[in-house]
Amino acid sequence: EAQVTQNPRYLITVTGKKLTVTCSQNMNHEYMSWYRQDPGLGLRQIYYSMNVEVTDKGDVPEGYKVSRKEKRNFPLILESPSPNQTSLYFCASSPMGWAGDSGELFFGEGSRLTVL
Amino acid sequence: QKEVEQNSGPLSVPEGAIASLNCTYSDRGSQSFFWYRQYSGKSPELIMFIYSNGDKEDGRFTAQLNKASQYVSLLIRDSQPSDSATYLCAVSPLREKLTFGTGTRLTIIP
Lengths: 116, 110
Prior knowledge:
The structure holds 2 protein chains of 2 kinds.
Chain A: E1 4-7, E2 10-13, E3 19-25, E4 31-38, E5 42-51, E6 54-57, E7 65-66, E8 76-78, E9 87-94, E10 106-107, E11 111-115
Parallel strand pairs in A: 2-11
Antiparallel strand pairs in A: 1-3, 3-8, 4-5, 4-9, 5-6, 7-8, 9-10, 9-11
Chain B: E1 4-6, E2 11-14, E3 19-25, E4 32-38, E5 45-50, E6 54-58, E7 61-66, E8 71-76, E9 85-94, E10 97-100, E11 104-109
Parallel strand pairs in B: 2-11
Antiparallel strand pairs in B: 1-3, 3-8, 4-5, 4-9, 6-7, 7-8, 9-10, 9-11
């Protein structure tokens, strides 16, 4: 089954404790992206990647890191989480070299993160 | 000014009626426009995209684009309770970038 898989789905952590949210897609997509979704603010892009070893900042990259060492994986790293990073996170991928060609972003199920 | 603006709603529409969802965007250079649907607790899914001025129909859904007015809309005909969801407008102002609005919550009343 074609899918984008995120883990963990739910996480409660404390300020400053490094964490990684994994994202894996099995559709051989070139484009991958991370979004956070907050009430009243909608979906905001954190980072995106056009291909292996190619990553770039989105609208809200502060406090996050990413890597794209393999085509299928695009982990999101919070080196020192803070309460303002409490959010619902979505990983997404697209079959085109660029998501905008068709707009068809395939989203993972989301990871709800709480930072105390 | 937000890049992509939507009325947050909630928008309540009787079953069988037409639901009209609206979106405005700020970047005149935007080329691609999309509507995603997001059920509560679920991830967004693409339902329509439109590139050219005018209307594009797909089943009960019609997307309308007016680049001169920087306006894109989604019409849902014969609304069903299963259409109750949040609808996200997304605009591509730059290559490699897709900017989402905050979404309009739609409720179809049986």
